[in-house]
């Protein structure tokens, strides 16, 4: 049946591009309204621009060490979004030394808080890498290939960069500063760039200083011009509990007056800030921003913007909305509802756009197959390994909702003792359910670790012993195989146990189960609280590894993975 399905899909490639509707989170209510978040997944530090059609919106977000990097999402109404590609195939393509540096996991480093702009027929993305400088990529087709990254400014501490092309052809760049590298923060600087935006030609000028005020941790600035005013919109007050500032001046170099234009107020949407403003061809104004939801990461909200006071007051009188009328667009039909892809049947010859590795890609990590599966090879763990923090070939995607279930069918193929593979929820703490070869059999094992980032060792709990599903009938390097269904469920604890913290309550719980026939599932192992990664939300997907440096690699063939209620 699988081969027949592949043949049908090969004859009808357009079917594979059909719009995807999530079973676990859809913000479009179908009655002309939407419910926040418009993307209930970790698209941290989002920014948005509109193309020349006036109705093609493109969004990108921080990707840190994950590869491919700089996700590109498209929408025609700012509510329904789909992943259409990535601007970075590696960190940083064309720079041999840096490509090697990012070939091992650099948790929390890499691409911070990008901005995306359309200018003179080109789409540009700028971002600050706090260790190496300011970078830029560009393209004329956001869904296609982006040019190799250009280092615009070398140095440490630069973050959160946004260009502004003025009417006279001049280009300016605003940025924030990472205290962890520069040892100062809470200031914004503006400098002049070359007209093509490829290098700095002016010295930085401090245009805003939040030190010693409620505006501490001002960062993430976005640069605009409207009705003769230069506008900088930026968050301040801290990530989980801060607010959104708007500031204006008649000169790009200030001085700037400022107002708070979005804050939590009496709502349960904490820290509403850092995002992008859009003026639509229908005369409406909107602001996309994130909310920090701890283990889930920073999810994306959409707020209306009211300029009637001369300031961009966001949401409802400066407080975020939960449900609101959708933006005007020509795409109002229910059939156009679409969400970022989660499930994957692995029936194409390319990796699904929801997936990222934890470091620059190596073909020995894994590849699609012609058999309707995706193969992940076992990673050779280091001699002194303690946990999976060092593993680059984790094939992971973002959590898509507050509660959901992930079920996958895999075949574990082992060539040597100790090889294992399975399903993982990865973060600073992690939990995985894997099939591990022990002698001529397999064990079903739960592997967990608390404070993986601190080098704490993982623990293992044996759930069951399994006879191989199949064995190779050859004398030459035979393998043994285990076909199994693995399930991961994320749920919120009982309301009575919830604790209020910064507007977000409760820590999600991860549970595992397994099945040998895909019908009857048995609980497996202990529950564990889901925890975010380094500057990213928790992510789920596949792990395959081993400790034998000399053995032929084993592998996991993932037949499918499905995200359901």
Describe the structure.
It is built from 3 helices and 39 strands. By secondary structure, it is mainly beta. Helix content is 4%, strand content 43%. It is globular. The two termini are 26 Å apart. The longest helix is centred in the first third of the chain and has 10 residues, at 2-11.
* Beta-strand content: 35-45%
Distance between the termini: 26 Å
| Strand element count | 39
The rough form would be described as: globular
Low-pLDDT runs of 5+ residues are 5-17, 500-505
Outline the biggest β-sheet. Answer: 8 strands, antiparallel
Which quaternary structure do these chains form?
single chain
Please estimate the helix content. under 10%
Output the structural class: mainly beta
- Rg, rounded, reads 24 Å
Give the helix tally: 3
Mean pLDDT: 94
List the main descriptive attributes of the protein structure presented here.
single chain; 565 residues; mainly beta; eight-stranded antiparallel sheet; seven-stranded mixed sheet; 3 helices; 39 strands; globular
Summary?
Helices cover 4% and strands 43% of the residues. With 565 residues, it is mainly β. The two termini are 26 Å apart.
List the helices and strands and how they pair.
Elements: H1 2-11, E1 33-35, E2 47-50, E3 57-60, E4 69-75, E5 82-88, H2 96-101, E6 112-119, E7 122-129, E8 133-139, E9 150-154, E10 158-165, E11 171-177, H3 179-182, E12 187-193, E13 205-209, E14 222-226, E15 229-236, E16 243-249, E17 257-262, E18 273-279, E19 285-292, E20 298-306, E21 313-314, E22 323-325, E23 366-368, E24 374-377, E25 379-380, E26 395-398, E27 404-414, E28 420-426, E29 430-438, E30 441-449, E31 459-466, E32 470-471, E33 480-491, E34 500-501, E35 504-505, E36 509-515, E37 522-529, E38 539-546, E39 555-564
């Amino acid at each position: 049946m699988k081969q027949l399905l592949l043949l049908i899909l090969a004859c009808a490639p357009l079917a594979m591009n059909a719009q995807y509707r999530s079973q676990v989170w859809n913000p479009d209510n179908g009655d002309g309204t939407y419910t926040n978040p418009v993307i209930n997944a970790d698209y941290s530090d989002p920014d948005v621009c509109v193309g020349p059609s006036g109705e093609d919106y493109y969004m990108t977000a921080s990707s840190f060490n994950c590869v491919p990097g700089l996700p590109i999402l498209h929408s025609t109404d700012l509510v329904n979004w789909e992943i259409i590609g990535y601007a970075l195939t590696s960190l940083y393509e064309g720079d041999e030394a840096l490509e090697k540096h990012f070939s091992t996991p650099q948790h929390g480093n890499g691409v911070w808080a990008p901005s995306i702009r359309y200018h003179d027929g080109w789409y540009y993305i700028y971002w600050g890498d706090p260790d190496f400088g300011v970078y830029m990529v560009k393209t004329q087709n956001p869904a296609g290939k982006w040019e190799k990254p250009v280092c615009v400014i070398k140095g440490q501490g630069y973050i959160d960069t946004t260009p502004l092309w003025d009417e006279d052809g001049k280009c300016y760049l605003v940025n924030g500063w990472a205290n962890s590298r520069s040892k100062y923060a809470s200031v914004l600087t503006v400098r002049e760039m070359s007209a093509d935006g490829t290098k700095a030609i002016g010295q930085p000028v401090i245009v805003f200083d939040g030190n010693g005020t409620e505006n501490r941790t001002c960062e993430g600035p976005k640069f605009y011009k409207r009705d003769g005013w230069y506008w900088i919109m930026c968050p301040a007050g801290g990530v989980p509990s801060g607010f959104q500032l708007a500031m204006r001046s008649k000169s790009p170099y200030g001085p700037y007056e400022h107002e708070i234009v979005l804050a939590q107020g009496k709502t349960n949407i904490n820290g509403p800030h850092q995002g992008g403003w859009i003026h639509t061809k229908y005369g409406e104004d909107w602001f996309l921003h994130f909310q920090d939801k701890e283990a889930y990461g920073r999810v994306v909200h959409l707020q209306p913007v009211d300029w009637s006071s001369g300031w961009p007051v966001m949401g409802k009188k400066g407080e975020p909305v939960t449900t609101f009328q959708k933006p005007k667009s020509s795409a109002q039909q229910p059939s156009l509802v679409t969400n970022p892809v989660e499930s994957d049947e692995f029936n194409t010859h390319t990796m699904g756009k929801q997936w990222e590795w934890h470091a620059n890609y190596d073909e020995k990590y894994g590849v699609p197959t012609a058999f309707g599966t995706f193969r992940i090879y076992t990673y050779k763990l280091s001699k002194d390994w303690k946990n999976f923090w060092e593993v680059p070939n984790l094939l992971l995607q973002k959590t898509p909702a507050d509660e959901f279930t992930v079920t996958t069918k895999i075949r574990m193929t082992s060539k040597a003792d100790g090889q294992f593979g399975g399903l993982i929820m990865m973060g600073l703490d992690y939990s995985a359910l894997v099939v591990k070869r022990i002698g001529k059999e397999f064990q079903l094992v739960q592997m967990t670790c608390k404070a993986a980032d601190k080098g704490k060792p993982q623990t293992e709990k044996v759930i069951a012993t399994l006879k191989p599903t199949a064995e190779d009938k050859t004398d030459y390097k035979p393998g043994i195989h285990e076909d199994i269904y693995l399930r991961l469920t994320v749920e919120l604890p009982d309301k009575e146990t919830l604790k209020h913290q910064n507007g977000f309550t409760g820590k999600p719980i991860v549970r595992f189960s397994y099945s040998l026939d895909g019908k009857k599932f048995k609980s497996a192992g202990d529950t564990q609280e889901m925890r975010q990664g380094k500057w990213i939300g928790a992510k789920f997907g596949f792990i395959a590894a081993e400790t034998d440096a000399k053995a032929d690699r084993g592998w996991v063939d993932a037949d499918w993975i499905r995200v359901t209620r």
